[in-house]
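Design job #97: recover the sequence.
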């Protein structure tokens, strides 16, 4: 078994993990998440600690993956995940209209993005978008979708970028 799969997963207070034949469900203060059971992997919960074990002859690769998925679900329902996007460029701004995100990104029309279920969007300032949710994959997916409306361009760096993302700028052509 891999080193990742051997590590136990501690369940914080208020987080409940249920194992059934069809999948694994984790419930907590931020919501409920579920995933399917990987072949040859079994999950055992004892005294607020979940551990992974593999069936005899099962592939080792599924143990670490199952442990990582369950650990991400536990962290998501207890603390939640968030991604921050920055809008860089003159006139680039974001605002909330109800549950929809309204982006001005230099196009002739505003870009309106409706938040999927389980994801909350916030705009602390006009040039920042905060994406929050319990599911790590969905939060990253929504952040990538919003970034794809105007990815950072390599000459001036204008566009939508992740917070802290470093854009390597190209040198302009010289006459």
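Job complete. Output follows.
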């Amino acid at each position: 078994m891999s080193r990742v799969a051997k590590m136990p997963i501690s369940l914080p207070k208020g987080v409940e993990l249920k194992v059934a034949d069809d999948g694994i469900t984790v419930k907590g203060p931020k919501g409920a998440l579920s995933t399917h059971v990987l072949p040859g992997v079994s999950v055992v919960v004892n005294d607020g600690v979940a551990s992974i074990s593999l069936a005899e002859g099962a592939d080792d690769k599924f143990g670490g993956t199952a442990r990582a998925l369950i650990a991400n679900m536990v962290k998501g329902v207890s603390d939640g995940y968030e991604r921050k996007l920055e809008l860089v460029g003159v006139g680039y701004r974001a605002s909330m209209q109800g549950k929809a995100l309204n982006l001005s990104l230099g196009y002739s029309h505003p870009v309106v993005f409706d938040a999927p279920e389980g994801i909350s969007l916030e705009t602390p300032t006009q040039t920042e978008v905060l994406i929050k949710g319990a599911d790590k994959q969905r939060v990253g997916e929504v952040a990538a979708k919003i970034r794809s409306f105007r990815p950072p361009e390599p000459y001036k760096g204008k566009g939508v970028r992740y917070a802290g993302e470093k854009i390597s700028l190209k040198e302009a052509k010289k006459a």
